[in-house]
Structure formats: structure tokens, C-alpha cells
Amino acid sequence: MLSLRLPADIESRLETLAMKTGRTKSYYAREAILKNLEDMEDAYLGGEILERIRKGEEEVLTAEKMWRGLDD
Prior knowledge:
Blueprint: H1 8-21, H2 25-54, H3 63-71
Helix pairs in contact: 1-2
């Protein structure tokens, strides 16, 4: 369960979209989260992964190995 507060103008836009399409506001909120979650994880967790790479704790492929792997 998730509850969030939105600025009035965003809430109004979301309400209008929901009414015009017959979908719920929750549907569109869920869609927006699913669409953007990976980008947010990259932005907010990227530093943690970079630190693991620097410590040798994270496997990194060279571009050459990555492209060879696609050919298999």
C-alpha cells in the first residue's frame, strides 16, 4: 500500500486524465512508477554500484566480451 501527496496542479491533471480515459488515478500513478523506477534506481543507486566496481566486488564486462556474448 502506498499513499502520497501531489501538488494540486498535478493532482488535477491526473484526475482529468483518469476521467477522460476511464482509468483510475492509481493506474496512472502505478504506470509512471513502473516506467521510471529503473532510471531512478540507476540515478540513486549508481554510486553504490560504482563503489563495488572500484573494490572489485562487481563483475564488469569489456565491450568486446559483451558483444561476443551477444553472438553466442
